[in-house]
Amino acid sequence: MKIEHIAIWSKDIERLKSFYQKYFNAAAGDKYTNLKKSFNSYFLSFESGARLELMNMPSIPESRGSTEEQFMGYIHIAISVGSQKKVDELTAQVKSDGYEVVGEPRFTGDGYYESVILDPDGNRIEITA
């Protein structure tokens, strides 16, 4: 078995699509629109075969979770970029482009080398080696 995809609700799927394409080389499929439900989505595919669905529907309420505090439930996705050097470079680029870094590159207690950034919607992404 494998996880087929993970989905994120967003007020601006075009902005999120551009972010994941620029920083993580995601390939976007065609935009899906369901006019009856006012639903739009993109599937983004990564080199590993993993997929991320970006979804928008105006009736979905804002998140009550804080980008500063942890909370119960899904909290982050981790994307491996292949090396410590790439973690450092991508984290620096994201920071330079004005996105928030909430965890500078470091070794964690469980042996990962990672940083933690926020995407444009405040979703946590661990960039790992």
Task: Explain how this protein is built.
The chain has 129 residues and is an alpha+beta fold. The protein folds into 2 domains: 6-56, 2,3-Dihydroxybiphenyl 1,2-Dioxygenase, domain 1 (Roll); 76-128, Roll (2,3-Dihydroxybiphenyl 1,2-Dioxygenase, domain 1), CATH 3.10.180. The protein is built from 2 helices and 9 strands, in the order βαβββββαβββ. β3 (32-34) and β4 (39-45) form a beta hairpin. The longest helix is centred in the last third of the chain and has 13 residues, at 84-96.
SSE layout:
Layout: E1 6-9, H1 13-24, E2 27-28, E3 32-34, E4 39-45, E5 51-56, E6 76-80, H2 84-96, E7 101-107, E8 113-118, E9 124-128
Parallel strand pairs: 1-5, 6-9
Antiparallel strand pairs: 2-4, 3-4, 4-5, 7-8, 8-9
Outline:
This protein has about 130 residues and is an alpha+beta fold. About 20% of the residues lie in helices and about 35% in strands.
CATH topology of the largest domain: 2,3-Dihydroxybiphenyl 1,2-Dioxygenase, domain 1
Low-confidence stretches: none
CATH level-two architecture of the largest domain: Roll
Structural class: alpha+beta
Assembly status = single chain
Instruction: Report the total helices.
Output: 2
Strand proportion: 25-35%
Number of self-contained structural domains: 2
Number of strands: 9
Mean pLDDT level: 93
**End-to-end Cα distance:** 24 Å
The SSE string, one letter per element, is: EHEEEEEHEEE
Assign the CATH superfamily of the largest domain.
2,3-Dihydroxybiphenyl 1,2-Dioxygenase, domain 1
Report the C-alpha radius of gyration, rounded.
15 Å
Apparent shape = globular
Main β sheet profile:
5 strands, mixed
